[in-house]
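Comment thread on ticket #2218

A.B. wrote:
> Attaching the input chain for the structure job we discussed in standup.
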Amino acid sequence: MYKRRWPSGEGLAIAQAKDKYFSQFVTKTSFNGLAESLMVAIHEETHMWDLDPSRTSWDVYVSAWINASRKAMKVPIHGGFARREILPLITDNLTSSMDDIYLRDQQQGSYRIQGVIAELNAGLMGLPAATVVAEYIQGVGASNSRDIVATNIRYLQLYLRVAKARYPDYWAKIKAQPELREFVLAEFLRAAYWLDQSAPYAAKLGSADVAKIVDKNYAPENLAIIEEFTGAKVNTGSARNCTV
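C.D. wrote:
> Ran it. Output below, let me know if you need it in another format.
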């Protein structure tokens, strides 16, 4: 099915087929159970591929599986600051459950831009992994797929805003890194695409808060930081996965 519907998922699965943990992520008792479990399986195996020491050096450079024919390879990220520093910019409860894990947790909250990017890219593989087999999903194992993507785009935008406001030297370093700017734009546009593609299955693949989170992500101050950082003008109309 992945070969027909989403070759990039087939490519990642083949690349990670020998990973000893892969079989622990999937349900093998039924096809519907397998379809539901693929969100977590592909999400986690994206982490495994992206964070392999041959491709990524924590806080130094990052690699990411984007699709079967395109990868972001060894993109310099120059360290950064603890991602928990974005918390003061979150004044609602739309992402509270993930905020507790990724921002308020003592260890997770200390991760820098590496952590933001890694979680976003895994989410951007987990969502299509579920979307392309969504008609077979009956349970709740993939029910936060859309939330993960929308929330981690939010984190990325707020991280960039804090970088610009509080860490001008760091902001200058990453803004001068064309590979990182291109990667951020690709991730933002991928999020727009897969949130749109998964919309017909929104009730299965996300909470009722996803639309509200997306609205926050397209608020002027958050859209502006993406455009300033990437140098691109993004489309806010019906083709949000495109630049203008």
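A.B. wrote:
> Thanks. Noting for the ticket: The mean pLDDT is 97.
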